[in-house]
Amino acid sequence: MSAEEAQVATDERTESREHVVCREEELPPGAMKLVPIGKYGVGVFNVNGKYFAITNFCPHEGGPLCKGRLGGQAEVDSDVPGGAVLTRVGEFIFCPWHQWGFELATGTTSVKPEWSIRTYPVKVVNGEVVVTR
Amino acid sequence: MSEKQRIIDSSVHMFFRKGGEIRDFMNEPYKSRGIPDVEMDWYGAPGGEYDPDIAKRSEGGYPSSDPSLVSEHLFGEQGVDIAILHPMTRGNLPDRHLTNAVLSAHNKMLVERWLEKGNSHKRFRGTIRVNPEDPKAAIQEIERWKDHPYVVQVGVPLQSREPFGKPQFFPLWEAAANYGLPVAVHIETGTGVDFAPTPSGHTRTYPQYVTFMALNYLYHLMNMIAEGVFEALPNLKFVWADGGGDLLTPFIWRMDTFGRPHLEQTPWAPKIPSAYLPGHVFFIHGKLDGPTAVDEQMVGQWTSLTGKENMFMYGSSYPHWNVSTPDQIQEGLTDDQREKILWKNAAELYKLELQAPVPG
After folding, report:
1. Nearest CB to A110: which of B257, B258, B262?
2. What is the ipTM of this complex?
3. B76 and chain A in contact, CB less than 8 A
């Protein structure tokens, strides 16, 4: 499917379609590209070479989730100064409005699974990043 | 045949018979020290600190200083089944050792006079007072009394120079949880080495003071949740004894919204803040707590929000001016809520054996 076809498919919400996001080199590790898919758009992330895609909408109060910062998961470790370590850096997105955090890979929050967000599969085909939604 | 309404009064205060009597319960080198008098109220209630009728009937002693007279009032006239006693002192003193000695004298008086000699009806239960500014001594004091069959609770002042989630207090909460004793937090009347009653300073008059002072529980509670105290101590139970539970809902909304649905700064408390309320947090509920009668139609719904109906416990605050009688518990509660507030929540918390009345 071409990029043009992907644009055409933007408003089709009833069934999954493949959408070309960009060339692989346009989305290096640490980058996010917001593509106009669906009502709110979809953010496609490259985290250390792994791709993730989520809707640009926070289920808490509707904030632009994908515009938030990437962060990690703090875990208790009583053996280190400060008593906690930051793990899995970059694998979580924090909404800019109230700092709600979601795991990019699964869409779940740290504290309440029923507030999870949907995630979409991403693959690379012939050097192009493709999201299925 | 209709059965009598069950009632547990979870907040009854008691005092020495008269000002200087405390010294009879103390040893040197503290017995002869200067101790704030029981009359030393910082903000005086207009019309007096105590219910005029109770004061008048106290027969020359201090109000609520004679177990038989208090028994007559509460168990005889008010129909109370069990009363939880909470001795009051006059503030945190600069010398923590002296504070410890003053509290210990109150505990000795409570146990000897009220839980033993004055308790042939077995209706009094007691709160052991300890000093959170000296956690080691506080734990010793708990261990001195914890096995007494009628000691059901530990009491600390609401006034504090640090919020109660801070680590210096943890051993004290841990001991209370391990011994199965809830911790009741009550405003210490009078003043001592404290901060101002509001975060913005001192109010001028008593009505402002009494309206807002109780809300200091919010700072302690939010801090304890965020610091993971309830996560670390699943058996810890806190009773905020000055009311204000009606305001819990909007504050926990705020905390759930922004508090931390992520774990960057507080991995020690991995649940949504409101998840730490049930089973850990209780409030004494009296006639100062809303919604007011004007909003009567909201009372049932507001009381159910945030699960408050499982946290509120009727407390009279006897013998104070604002003494609430059981029939003054709000109109508008559902029957189920009224039963929980008048006795069921307290019976469960304090493990008191009161059977539900058999429907007639």
Report:
1. B262
2. 0.71
3. no
